[in-house]
Amino acid sequence: MLGFLLLGVLALGVSRGLLMAWQWERVGATDSVLPMLVQGLRSDLMTLGLFAAPVLVLLPPLLLIRRLRWWIALCCGWLALSLILIIFLELATPQFLIEYDSRPNRLFLEYLVYPREVLAMLWNGYRGLLLLTGATVAGLTWVFTRHFSQYARDTNVWRTSTVLLVWPIVVIVLFVMVRSSFQHRPANLATFAFCDDAMVNSLVANSAYTVLSAAYSLKNETQSSWMYGDMPMTEVIQRVRTGMGVPPADFTSEERPTLRRQVATAQRAKPLNLVIVLEESLGAGFVQQLGGIPITPNLDRLAGQGIWFDQLYATGTRSVRGIEAVVAGFPPTPALSVVKLSKAQHNFATLASVLQRSGYRSEFVYGGESHFDNMRGFFLGNGFNSVIDRKDFATPKFVGSWGVSDEDLFEMAQSRIRTLHAAGRPFFMLVFSSTNHTPFEFPDGRIELYDAQKQTVRNAVKYADHALGQFIERARNSEQWADTLFLVVADHDTRVYGDELVPVSKFHIPGVILGADVTPRRIDSLVSQIDLAPTLLSLMGVDGEHPFAGRDLTRTLPEFGNTPAPVQARAMMQFDQNFAWLERDRLTVLLPDGSSRQFAFDRRTKTLAPAATTDPEALREALAHVLMPAWLYREQRYSVSR
């Protein structure tokens, strides 16, 4: 195994060095050669550990039946085969880079489904390269077979007691290699993303690792919205387009059916900057203005100072679902959030990629580890210019399990806002808090505790509100306030639970838009998180094209003077495999077995009761709006450019 690791590290290191030298024009522009090599070694050890693990698991049972020689032969054969496969993928990388500007990924796996067509293409178009690669692999097979056969012949068989003493040590070493992190979560592809050049990021990991990651992600894409039922795509498109409240003439593409031209309702000589504060796990139950307990006085005060949403609903129960909705304007599906899915890692529409076309710089500021849930990879691949996370906080005042405190986070955000504002270029900043997350750690002496025990969710929420209040107050007193739009919104509620098919009350979240010349008003209509992105663009004064499936609320809600309203207010939610479509006083729930349920919804008490009648139109609307995003993702039709 040690020989396998040494040979593997050497081969992968040489391959990475050659690839970096070949792509030096783009690699050199990042000024990060040493970090690429160090993180590359880390990914190589992870990969080699993954390949070594299976045979290690087989050692105890073969030892028990006194077949240690069998295990030695199996181990040597497997490691030789693994090394050949790993190097083969490295040999395939240059041509894949030429074709797709990336290491082998999900597309590489998709091509394996069509071996005859692929082989014919390679033979006709890359015959010399194919023959050279084949000869190289054959040569490596001969070399590695002889190399590992020597181990099989020369290895002395230890006593059983010696093997049992050494085996746990090797297991621990491999576990540390594969996990490659002593933090809350193991390293992943997002760990190795450090710039906004997706191709350069892909060079950090090795090709075996990128292919294995793509294979692993495929299991998350097997869940399809089609389990709820079938509908002609023409009807799906027609219903979704109508529901967006957009005139037919404003849609600009048949290939990308949600792509539309949007003219801002607030016409400005200079469009506003944008700062979104995404608050972790801050449900309506913590906000007195929304009927909750009084532990967010600062947020409550903001209700009268901006555009306050009384009936805003999250699309899901995870942070990545909130990011998907707020930053990408993308509706929920039963699959994982697109933040984590392979086809959305590049050329997927976000506020950053849309604003990039208007000259904006976009930054993500987070106090924890940005590779969590693949945030770093998703953002850098889709319009964000930089990511600031835990490692960038030189001397934080407080560090908890999930990262620096919200006060440290907002100080960093304020510093970056001043810097970006001084540069004179329009900017978009996404600030993501993390204090309100178990184990609910925050600095002492900042708030009067609501609960006697310090580390509780309610005390954490109260501290998060304290830090938010300081941030907004500093922003209000700064010169940036006059030309910056601020959105404060929750990603989701904490612990979404309940015995209903969809616990609607646990999807109710606070949201408020502040800053610049925003006229305070309260929005009583139903609003979904996916409506925020197009609405922000309109208030900022940004004209352009985007595929966001939500509504520009300034053109669709009666609170903005649209009477009669062109479309009925609605919200949508995904709770595990149940999809909910909420309209006025009716909730329609689609179930994974293809059935559905409808409920009467009391907006005042947030309670459900069986509906007295069935509304087939609501069922069709719900089905169309859960089928469309799955199709847009699968067909890769949610982008601002081809």
Number of strands: 20
CATH architecture tag of the largest domain: 3-Layer(aba) Sandwich
**CATH structural class of the largest domain:** Alpha Beta
- Helices and strands: which structural class? alpha/beta
Question: How many domains would you count in the coordinates?
Answer: 2
Beta-strand percentage range: 5-15%
The percentage helix is 40-55%
> Quaternary arrangement of the chains shown?
single chain
Biggest β-sheet description = 8 strands, mixed
| Arithmetic mean of pLDDT | 91
- CATH homologous superfamily of the largest domain? Alkaline Phosphatase, subunit A
Shape type: globular
Query: Runs with pLDDT <50, length 5+?
Result: none
**Could you tell me how far the N terminus lies from the C terminus, measured between alpha carbons in angstroms?**
46 Å
What strand order characterises the main sheet?
Answer: 6-5-9-2-10-12-3-13
User: Radius of gyration from the CA trace?
Assistant: 27 Å
Q: Please tally the helical runs, counting DSSP H or I stretches of 4 or more residues.
A: 20
The CATH topology of the largest domain corresponds to: Alkaline Phosphatase, subunit A
Give me some keywords for this one.
Alkaline Phosphatase, subunit A; 642 residues; 20 helices; alpha/beta; 8-stranded mixed β-sheet; 2 domains; 5-stranded antiparallel β-sheet; single chain
Description of the molecule:
Helix content is 45%, strand content 13%. It has two domains: 219 residues, no CATH class; 361 residues, Alkaline Phosphatase, subunit A, CATH 3.40.720.10. The longest helix has 33 residues. It is built from 20 helices and 20 strands. A hairpin with a 2-residue loop joins strand 7 and strand 8. With 642 residues, it is of the alpha/beta class. The model has no long low-confidence stretch (mean pLDDT 91).
